[in-house]
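look at this:
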Amino acid sequence: MQKFRITLIALLTLITTSAVAQCPLTNTAFNSGEYLYYNLYFNWQFVWVKVGSASLSTSSTKYKGKDAFRSSLITGGNGKLDKFFVMRDTLTGYVTPTLSPLYFRKGAVEGKRYTVDEVWYDYTGGKCNLKMHRQRHDKTHARSEKSTEQCVYDMLNIFTRARSFNSTGWKKGHTVKFPVADGDGVTNAILRYDGNETVKGDNGVKYRCMKLSYLEWSEKKKKYRQYATFFVTNDSNHVPVRIDITLNFGNAKAFVATMKGTRNPLTSIVK
């Protein structure tokens, strides 16, 4: 399950639990109306070139008649990137007010390939029950189901949830394992804390950040492979300021350019 995890993906502490009960968690990191905008850069022949943008918005909504948060992540390359690789991703995720995943969808145009991944979550019987669907680039479909006593996430809803976890007491090298679902199944992932750094966003502001690496298990190579590094504000918002991504065709970076509607004071700003 080799993917670009812009989820912007698994940003703070994760503690898997054996008793699901929807894995509730109090939201402390964001409000409805938060909007984050990023500039995307690609390393082309040792030169970093701006090639597109990404936006992440969060709003209050209803899912099957019940209160929920909806997150939407949209990424896209401009003409410079399209000359080498077309990338258009739209990710949508729904979670309960206590940040338990409800639904996930990713529609991705990558090169000449278009794929769709979907995950539905249900928590009856004290388990996390998953229904997964993938539409492949050749328009064939794969469907599967899984029930587990673990909390399971996806590449977008894990970001929404993980921002509210408390990382107090973490030491450099600390790792946490957790399962991640997409339309093709469930795999194991790791979040590793790699210390603190000061990072400047494309908005000209410097932030004290936690450096977090995201790795996924490769069944083929029988080891974990690093896909992304996140630099998130070291305050109660845990906003990703910079994201370094390893792609099949090169390396990319995303820098925050706009933050609107953050819930808490940005005490991580370096003045």
User: Anything to note?
Assistant: The helical segments are 79-82, 157-162. Confidence is low (pLDDT under 50) at residues 1-21.
